[in-house]
Each structure stands twice: as structure tokens, then as C-alpha cells.
Amino acid sequence: MDKKKQERIADLAMSAFFEEVAKHYPEVTTGDFPPCAHSDLLSACEDALSTWLEWNHPDSDYFNDED
Q1: Is 10 exposed, middle or buried (0-12, 13-18, 19+ CB in 10 A)?
Q2: Tens of pLDDT along 32-56?
Q3: Closest CA relative to residue 43, chosen from 2, 15, 5, 14
């Protein structure tokens, strides 16, 4: 599957996560997040997306395993 597409989607998902968080904390007026934590979170989002695709996408090996 397209790795660049997955990276873009993970980044969009991470942005949506923080938009939702910000809605519930209106008293927070900044959006600071440490670069190392950003990298870790993005990696976790990419891993989660990859796992989700593996289990759900019709073209994944999970669905095409002939054993």
C-alpha cells in the first residue's frame, strides 16, 4: 500500500485529534507540542493506521492469505 498516502493520513488524523482536544480545553490558548513528542505521536498514528489497514483493507494480506 502507498506509504506516502498513509503518512499524510496519519498526519491529518493527528491534527483532527488535537482539534478535538482543543474543543474540550477552551482555556488553553496555545498549541505547543515538543518536537520529539510530535515524532512519537506521528509514528504511533502511522502504526495504528497500518494495523487498521492490515485488518480491514480488502487488498491486505490478511484477506488474501491462502493458508
Answers
A1: buried
A2: 999 999 999 999 999 999 999 999 9
A3: 14
